[in-house]
Write the structure tokens for this entry.
Amino acid sequence: MKILISNDDGISAIGIKTLIKELSKIHDIYVIAPDRERSAAGHSLTLHTPIRVEELEPYFGAKRVFVTSGTPGDCVKIGINAVLAKEEQPDIVISGINHGPNLGIDILYSGTVSCAMEGAMLGKPSIAVSLAGMSMDEIYFQSTAKFILSFLKRIEKISFPEKTILNINTPALEEADIAGIQITKLGSKMFTDDYERWTDPRGKTYYRMAGQLTAKHEDDGTDIAAVRNNLISITPITFEMTHKAIMADLEREFCKDGICDWWGFSHINKKEE
């Protein structure tokens, strides 16, 4: 299988190196990652400045390795559309291994998730994978990478839906201490929205985000609850954002009998007649 790997922690991060090393044992790995950390970049793209792309000497068994000045989304978009040759096009896109959790509605800010989402938008099966802990111990990243290698052997058995990614979070534990796997839905917020107020040497006020992990109870079946119970969480996420359930109510209120002329549009129709 040809796999495009990217991330938001940057080309030098321990997570992406560990993932490359493990997956290259079986698969053809292509790497395109940012030149520095781009955490919490969300789904941003570079529009008004050039994106620089440099090919590096391949390492850890990868076929080709590129570093860019762009965002995580840039990496996948430019990789598939401009950098990789036709015969190098990936069968799947994997973003990670992120250093830290991507759980609940906080994924809206995640560069890791957005990186995978860009792959899905380009029609590629895509996975975002995160180590849900702040430890830098390599053994936890190795456990996660080994799980992904095994996971890929099963992925071909499912019909991977279009416009969908799988968001995977693994507890920061050794393999023997992981309690299992759970298919989950998104939970609520993982962190509080706290800010600290500071004053700089010139007397100007500025703020720093100082969010803490919440202690809020999460219902069983959410990704946050699963990770807290030492389970690997797998959450299917789509970028199809249309809220279809309310469309019928809107039609009834604003376009009765298929006519939407309540805001003075009827005069336009009369002129056309």
User: Anything to note?
Assistant: The helical segments are 14-23, 72-83, 111-121, 138-155, 223-228, 247-254, 266-272. The longest strand covers residues 92-99. Residues 149 and 177 are 19 Å apart (CA to CA).
